Write the C-alpha cells for this entry.
Amino acid sequence: MTEVILQSELTCPECGHRKIETMPTDTCQWFYECEGCHTLLKPKAGNCCVYCSYGSVPCPPVQLNPKSKGCCDSP
C-alpha cells in the first residue's frame, strides 16, 4: 500500500511566499489565502484543489489514484 504524504509546501504564484500545510483528507480545499500578499489562490483549470495546483505534493486522493480527477472526483 502506498503511504500518503499529508504535508505539502504551497507556493504563491504572485509573491513566491511558501508555507508547509497539512492537507485535508476529507474535503477539497478550493481556496487558500497567501500569508505573504493575501492573494486568494484557486485551483488552476483541470486541477481539483490548491494543493494540486500550487503544492509540492498533490492531494491525498490523487496520490492514491493518479488517474482520478482528484479529491472532488465522484465515485
User: Anything to note?
Assistant: Residues 7-64 form one domain. The first strand starts at residue 7 and ends at 11. DSSP finds two helices and four strands in the chain.
